[in-house]
Amino acid sequence: MNDWRSLLPTPEGGRRAPLALGVELRLRDPRGSWSARPQRAATPRDIAKREGEVLLGVRPLVRSDATGAWIQGGASWDLVRRPGTQFAAAASRWFADLLNISRDSLLSGASGDWLILDHVESALLWPHLRAAAALGIPLVSTQKQVRVTLVDSVELSAEIRREDSGALRMQAAAVLDGTTVTAEDIHPIGGTGVYTAAVVGRGMDVLLGESPLDPAVRALLTARSGVEIDAGEERAFLRDAYPLLARRIAVRAHGAVRLPELPRPTPVITVAFQSGDVVRWTFEWDYAGFGRHPFSWTGDAVRDVHAEDDARGGLVDVWTRATEREFAPQGSLHDVAAAEFVSAAVPALEAEGVEVVVTGRRKAYHELSGEPEVTISTVETTDADWFDLGVLVRIDGRSIPFEPLFTALSRGRKKLLLADGGYFSLAHPALGRLRDLIDEAGGLDEWETGPRISRYQVDLWEEFEDLADEALPAVTWRATVEGLRDSSGVPPTPVPLGLKAALRPYQKSGFDWLAFLWRHRLGGILADDMGLGKTLQLLALMQHAREQGETRPFLVVAPTSVTGTWRAEAARHAPDLRVVVAGSTIAGGAGSLVTAAAGADVVVTSYAVARLDEDAFARVSWAALVLDEAQFVKNPATRVHRAVASFDAEVTIAVTGTPMENSLSELWALLSLTAPGLFASARAFREHYLQPIEQGKVAENAEGGDYRRRRLAQLRRRIRPLVLRRTKDHVAADLPPKQEQLLEIELSSAHRSLYDVVLQRERQKVLGLLEDLDRNRFIVFRSLTLLRMLSLAPALIDEGDATIGSRKLDVLLERVEELQAEGHRALVFSQFTSFLDLAQERLAAAGIPFARLDGSTRRRQEVVDGFTAGEQPVFLISLKAGGFGLTLTEADYVFLLDPWWNPAAEAQAIDRTHRIGQTEQVFVYRMVATGTIEEKVLDLQRRKARLFSAVMDDDDLFAQSLTADDIRGLFDAR
Question: Which pTM does this prediction carry?
Answer without folding.
Answer: 0.45
